[in-house]
Amino acid sequence: xxxxxxxxxxxxxxxxxxxxxxxxxxxxxxxxxxxxxxxxxxxxxxxxxxxxxxxxxxxxxxxxxxxxxxxxxxxxxxxxxxxxxxxxxxxxxxxxxxxxxxxxxxxxxxxxxxxxxxxxxxxxxxxxxxxxxxxxxxxxxxxxxxxxxxxxxxxxxxxxxxxxxxxxxxxxxxxxxxxxxxxxxxxxxxxxxxxxxxxxxxxxxxxxxxxxxxxxxxxxxxxxxxxxxxxxxxxxxxxxxxxxxxxxxxxxxxxxxxxxxxxxxxxxxxxxxxxxxxxxxxxxxxxxxxxxxxxxxxxxxxxxxxxxxxx
Length: 311
Prior knowledge:
Layout: E1 2-3, H1 17-26, E2 31-34, H2 41-53, E3 57-65, H3 69-79, E4 87-93, H4 100-126, H5 133-140, H6 146-155, H7 162-170, H8 185-194, E5 198-201, H9 213-226, E6 230-235, H10 240-253, E7 256-260, H11 286-300
Parallel strand pairs: 1-2, 2-3, 5-6, 6-7
Antiparallel strand pairs: 3-4, 4-5
């Protein structure tokens, strides 16, 4: 069993990278990937401990992206007038370390996150909440995310629980929502491919049309043309029916089926490392073997044809 989707204190998790690696060892995981949001800091720290303990460690990242206008029009029949939320893209450096060019590129993601956080504080204060960015920062460390805002709202008694904080104020369509300047999904796939990473569409169940096979086929066909190589089939929020649908789609498009718990520690206390919610996640080791084979095959073939495949 492996876990290819986890978060640490480097982004919006509650467990430090070294402790997460130790927890993976205690949980008898055969491999662990850290996939913090828009940063590799957790991987840099976790990789050192993983090497010392002999844990099979994969450098990963989770990017927040938006569909380019042309792709939005492709899925418009299933989207209607709804605004498409941020779409998460996982990237795995399974064969080579992330190059300096990629590290430089993600600095822009971090800056847009900081800008969003400043605006979010002002919006929340407009609701009469006495909060400051400094208070949120003390909860979040290096990189502040919306879970840290949810935690502060809970601590101050403005909401009953973290989910209410998202439902009322923090989610993409909630009262205090702030739209981030996020890169295009297809462009980001090209950047990952151009930097020797395996791009994987994260938790498709969160898409507004995540249960519609026709809509997903239209989207995946376009994303495969952009260089997508994997689809997250197993995830704590996916039902058995969704897993079956996504596994079938991965097979149809020649994508590597991947998965993970989306572990966040105490910030999502119902999700256990490796096994998800009440044991609903179990990703076999051969999924990682397939990903590594895909990365090696891509390295030996012609680079993906994408004008944004390098930084």
